[in-house]
Amino acid sequence: MRFLVLGGGAQGSAAAFDLLRQDSVEEVVVADRRTDAPHPALRPHLGGRLSTLRLDAASSSEGIRRAMKGVDGVLCALPYHFNYDMARMAVEVGAHFTDLGGNTAIVTRQRALDAAARKRGVSVAPDIGLAPGMVNILAQAGIERFDAVHSVRLWVGGLPRRPRPPLNYQIVYALEGMFDYYVTPAEILRDGKRIRVDALSELETVEFGAPIGRLEAFHTGGGTSTMPARYENRIRSFEYKTLRYPGHARLMRAIRELGLLSDRDVDYNGATVNPRKFFIQQVTPFLRNEDGDDLVVARVEVTGEKDAATCRIRYEVIDRFDPATGITAMARTTGFSLAIVAQMQARGDVAPGVGTPDEVVPAAPYIRELAEREIRARFERFPQPDPNTEHVE
């Protein structure tokens, strides 16, 4: 199998690294604007099955199209605004396509490629990362265990192992994308109907085992992919919340309300200033951890009825930075997820057409593939709702 990875950042590098560990993968090409500083985990593979290609996704559409020709799959780890164009070109050349997603409006545009993808016999799988991605596949696995489903709740956080005040956070992916989630309303199901709620709202505390302990959770957009629309009028409650260390949400709400997360340019003494870009520039040195020592916490809970009895099931994933490879927990859980699905597409395990993770990715083999990479989705069953979640506002 031959694969093209678009984007050589943390997630794209992790995906390429995972592909190169598979005996069935003959060649991996990583395309990026910069090719002079590959991730340390990739350097031993250069000159063998791994090669790099200098391409700018914003201006090299013909070059990207040429790079796509002849590959079995395209993995897109570029910012989400590239995803539609990259998917369209992959379908045109007849290559399977998957991306990290994160923007439901773009996924809706990608669905328009369904007929063309089916005609070419290829699959397009957007939103295949951690959230959206892994948690949606786990949620669907939970839904399928019940005769009737009452609620689905997803909690996900990328966190520093050693939090530092005042934000108790470190950069695990682009701040521009994270702050976008902090200002974009989240779509959820409540009483079976889709509604929008404010990002950073409905704060609650969630308990985890030692050494993680108590975290806070709040609404953010993007993590559910299209599942609320799919299950409207079929499931009463469907929610996704981001996990952080306590105190983070209130600080970020104050920063947002002061206008520092606005992406609209303003005039300052005759100069044009973008508040969000300026804030990112100022805060980045305080949030950067060169050691990359992070962790990912994800919990999926589904409550429903099985054989006339009400119960709750839980999938929980806790992953940590890998010092042996230098790959962060966030890159492992997003990039490896992307690589797993790309290989499933190439093997024919994903049907032609366009579909989100919960629609097209078979959960059992996906969970087994995660476990082979030491990312374990621990499964538990409970007889009643979770007592370890407490609303605080």
Structure description:
The chain has 393 residues and is of the alpha/beta class. The chain has two domains: 2-129 and 331-372, 3-Layer(aba) Sandwich (Rossmann fold), CATH 3.40.50.720; 134-327 and 374-391, 2-Layer Sandwich (Dihydrodipicolinate Reductase, domain 2). Helix content is 32%, strand content 28%. The chain has helices at 10-20, 61-68, 83-93, 104-111, 114-120, 134-143, 175-183, 227-230, 248-257, 275-287, 329-347, 357-360, 363-372, and strands at 2-6, 27-32, 50-54, 73-76, 96-99, 123-125, 148-160, 186-190, 193-197, 204-207, 214-219, 237-244, 266-268, 271-273, 294-306, 309-320, 353-354, 378-382, 389-391. The strands form four sheets. The chain has an eight-stranded mixed sheet, covered by helices on one side. A seven-stranded parallel sheet has the order 3-2-1-4-5-6-17, with helices on both faces. α3 packs parallel to α4 and α6 crosses α13 (363-372). The longest helix has 19 residues, at 329-347. The termini are far apart. The model has no long low-confidence stretch (mean pLDDT 94).
N- to C-terminal separation?
51 Å
Would you report the number of β strands? Answer: 19
Mean pLDDT level: 94
Q: Main β-sheet, in a few words?
A: 8 strands, mixed
Q: Could you list the spans in which at least 5 consecutive residues all have pLDDT below 50?
A: none
CATH fold label of the largest domain: Dihydrodipicolinate Reductase, domain 2
CATH class of the largest domain: Alpha Beta
Structural class: alpha/beta
